[in-house]
Amino acid sequence: MDSTRISSVADDFLTWASDDKVARYLIWNTVTTTEETLTYIQQAAIPHPCEIFNPIPSVFEKFSFIVRLEGLVEEENS
User: How many domains does the chain fold into?
Assistant: First the structure.
């Protein structure tokens, strides 16, 4: 993923993940800076081996009008 795209994603992610109401459902602490966000994206999100991320590129290919894909799973929903 190129650095321009990562920066754009980081800005959106920071807006979302810095909200304590959102972060309470996450497994990591609330991020508060762009540097923390970039570190998380580069070291945890991009290389994450979870299979759920594999179909995401095909979603953007099939539905080219989509510019952002978002998801949230709460443990209580399982």
Answer: 1
